[in-house]
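Final report, Chapter 2: Outcomes

The project's central promise was a pipeline that accepts a single protein chain and returns its three-dimensional structure in a standardized token representation, suitable for archiving and comparison. That pipeline is now operational. To close this chapter, we reproduce one record exactly as it appears in the project archive, with the input sequence first and the structure output second.
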Amino acid sequence: MLELLKKTFDKFDGLIILAAVFLFTHFDYDNLSTLDKVYIASFAVWGVTKLIRLYIIYKKEKEG
């Protein structure tokens, strides 16, 4: 399982996760600006693409 995660996530992904955690803890959710909404949407898209990549790699590992 650890090898599967190593194939899915790069070192740069760790920086993206740290940035997301930092931004999400400092957002004023009662008063979101347009830029805040763009950040939230971009992190959501990034997360979904990582989940898709994890699924694809898992299927390849299972078949081969």
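Archive annotation: Residues 2-63 form one domain.
This record, like all others produced under the grant, will remain available to the consortium after the project formally closes.
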